Amino acid sequence: MSEDQIPFDHPDLVANPEPRCACLLLLDTSGSMHGRPIAELNAGLVTLKDELMADAMAVQRVEIGVISFGPVRVHSDFQSPDTWSPSHLEASGDTPMGAAIEQGLQMLDARKQVYKQSGITYYRPWVFLITDGGPTDRWQQAASLVHAGDNDDRKSFSFFAVGVQGANMEILAQISRREPLRLQGLRFRDLFAWLSSSLGGVSRSTPGTQVPLVNPTEPSGWASV
Amino acid sequence: MSDAEWRVAYTSVIGTSHEKTGLPCQDAGGCRIVTDTSGRRVLLAIASDGAGSASRSLDGAALTVSTFLQDFGDSAQQFGLDEITRQFVQEWISRLRNEIKDRADAADLSAREFACTVLGAVVGEHRAAFFQIGDGAIVVSNRAEPDDYGWVFWPQHGEFANETNFVTQDNALDVFEFELEERCIDEIAVFTDGIERLVLDLQEKTAHAPFFRTLFGWLVKTDPATFDANIPNSHVITQYLDSKPINDRTDDDKTLILASRRPTLDRTLASVDAEQSASPAI
């Protein structure tokens, strides 16, 4: 029996807003990123946009927010991949990582409030911190906020830290509960392609589904620990 | 109109994402009509959604469906709805959990590997019992307000869209919901979360009447089900749930059980005509 033999007209279905998967990028744009690192980071952001745009479900569900630090600056509040255009980041200044984390988590909370008020369901947000140095400000408050929001009991978000060559991995390990990842060389594009595909997986997950994340530290991946 | 026959249709259709990744359909559902010792009909409807990440969730869902149809059917055949209380359902869920635990132990697995939701309904003439653990929903209508479709329990989700409750979790009996309604439910739909976002308005928190009106409008015109026999209408909703308009909007497994004992408009008019012609002329 073919579809046109269904003995009733297709009923109108509800156009509920899509559930959202917020991803916050906290990007180090301090002076030490000058040159190839910042160029590769910028290219990586373009890759992220392109890859998300190629995934029909991700376009509807993923929202990207970008904050850079050196100094702290909000480049985009959370928006879907089709309206987000990656800013061209430039490297300068010091590394106020603590302030960036605090402001980012506030921005994330505000977004969750908007979701709740609008009856929009959402997935556990991701926060991605990328740095090639160490904080030049007080970071302990930021670290305790991260720990308070990402632990076995309270899962407000998932926090990932990625260190580029020269990063202070010891402090990153104190900020993030998950082991910080070390970016291999300047493989920002691989990192963001992985991020896009992981967010795509999260954004189509249903209850009880474990989202299969490709391990970025496997030999062909972009990271090592 | 209490003697109106139930018309039923039910199906579980694999989601396109399960097809792509080689997963089986992990939903199960079923429906049964029994007669109690006083000759009253009782409709049983059940749906269960096996968790995507649990290796034996399909077994959990299938076991939930088969034991429900057996145990609640046995009780309804003897006592109608008299025995089907909150306590009866709680005890049944405890037994189901034990059975799952035994199977998990035998396979050297955690009971978590059998994780599944449950949505159950037992509908008698003037009383109906409902229960639920997890997401999905049961939507009902009664003859007094025929165009009013209401949900019994709102789907259980956690803070995040991909979180829900399962029969196998430790606090299953704390999150279990039960409701007994003393009214004549004559249309009922039971469905898993695969079509939840398509037929429930999540912002208004309402059931989307046009969907239910259309499907029940078709169902009431079909032939009534014979007892415990194959359900003749199911291929229609199987085909509908596998159609492009549905698959464009959901890639998850979807189960739908529909039952109606509402008289069709034609039959109602025919009986009115017969009464009028039988009245003595003034």
What does this 3D model show about the protein?
The complex is a heterodimer of chains A (about 220) and B (about 280). Chain A is of the alpha/beta class and about 220 residues long. Helix content of chain A is about 35%, strand content about 20%. Chain A has a domain at about 30-70 and about 75-125 and about 135-205: Rossmann fold (3-Layer(aba) Sandwich). Chain B is of the alpha+beta class. Chain B has a single domain (about 5-275), classed as PPM-type phosphatase domain (Phosphatase 2c, domain 1, 4-Layer Sandwich). Chain B is built from nine helices and twelve strands. Chain B has helices spanning about 15-20, 55-80, 85-105, 170-175, 195-200, 210-220, 235-240, 245, 265-280; strands at about 5-15, 25-35, 40-50, 120-125, 130-135, 135-140, 150, 175-180, 185-190, 200, 205, 255-260. Chain B has a five-stranded antiparallel sheet, with helices on one face. In chain B, strand 2 and strand 3 (about 40-50) form a beta hairpin. The longest helix of chain B is centred in the first third of the chain and has 23 residues, at about 55-80. Chain B is globular and about 55 Å long. The interface of A and B includes residues 9, 205 and 209 of A.
The portion of residues assigned to helices of chain A is: 25-40%
Oligomer: heterodimer
Largest sheet of chain A: 7 strands, mixed
Q: Report the CATH architecture of the domain at 30-68 and 77-124 and 135-204 in chain A.
A: 3-Layer(aba) Sandwich
Short précis:
The complex is a heterodimer of chains A (225) and B (282). With 225 residues, chain A is an alpha/beta fold.
